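I had to read the description of the data format several times before I understood it. The format is easy to grasp once an entry is in front of the reader. For illustration, here is how one protein appears when written out as sequence plus structure tokens:
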Amino acid sequence: MEATLNARALPISAKQWLILITAGIGFAFDMYEMVIQAIVLRPVLMELGGYRPGSPEFNQWAGITLFLPPVMGGLAALVGGYLADRLGRQRVLVWSIVFYGAAAFCSGLATSIAELIFWRCITVAGACIEFVAAIAWLTELFADSRRREAVLGYSQVCATFGNIMIAGAYYAAVTWGDQLPALYGAHSAWRYALMFGALPAIPLMILRPFLPESPVWQAKRLAGTLRRPSFAELFSPRLRRVTVLSMLLAACSYALAFGMLQHIPRLVPGLPQVAELSRQGQEQWVSFVHLHQDVGALIGRIVLALLVSWVVVRGPILRWSLGLGAVVFPLVFLAGVGDADVFRYAVVLVTALVSLQHSFWGNYLPRVFPVHLRGTGESFAISFGGRVLAPVAALVTTQLANVMPGSNPTAKLANSIALLAAVVSVCGLVLSRALPEPAPTLPED
């Protein structure tokens, strides 16, 4: 008890602040890289493929482009989580950011859809690895449980700034891109927006020599007590239940992003007031609606941070958000698309509920896996469940849009989103009732 009080009384050191800033930058650009593809998808497929929006060919390539990078990223992050437990949190985190920064720059220079997908796979792989390493690093940074919960919760709020950067960067690229250097003889806004994701690699290379390793991981390694991570141990009797349930529930939470949120930019140009505008005006509205998504993401992550800082139990937080989503999501996409102004405000609530769930896993998972399995366990739940299984929702939504009833492609897509979101939310609500509550203290072995 005394140790906890002393830990709570100590101010945050300069090195700890440096870690928090580094993780915050990583979270912001992780979100930027995960979401930017959905924003630029329409102009990319029109320019590189010559496909007409709403056509079967367009929907097919849209599904592949949104599906393949997160799947490859999730598989890579499984290895990344294992390496974070074997080699240390700091080394894996920093180099993963440098890795995806370089790939993000190259993706803006792609000349074909296949080449773009290749670079996007590498970019998303680095972002997924960074998230796992950063969460493990932050979890082990503070001894006081309340401060640790607050740090995990509020640091993930930085991911929202990645969303805000997307809205700002894409709006600027659409509006003033003709003043930037031409690429392949044109001023394509999507190229500038993708290349902007290379920025975090620059400060990270400067900060790297000053970043310490996780004190908990380092102490165990120096003492020779750090056990070797093992995927098989995740399915031992003591961890099997939480491993399987967290993976399935993370898949449900992230499926809402891949099958619902990432298709919102495709809906915007077909909304009644927007369809009459020029192509530039439509793309400006895409960034405008995305700004409302940013506000929702910020609200959701702040609400989660407040809840986990003061509420002991976590299960009800997840169940409430899933239950509310099962009602709200279908209503928004069945009724809200009839009016652009109504839709943009409804999007705030939709995104808040999904973002709250995503932040939930960043706080929950480190509390149920021991030190030598912290990165491995997180990567299995988030990377396999959230990045390998969940992206199937992107394919389901795009293929359902080909057969769903509706007066136009926008209505068909909205109906397919509503159906998928309702099914996923109900499945998650049922599974969440069996999710175990974490112990008050972090498991060490």
Q: What stands out?
A: The first helix runs from residue 2 to 9. The domain at 15-211+237-432 is CATH 1.20.1250.20 (Growth Hormone; Chain: A;). The chain has 19 helices and no strands.
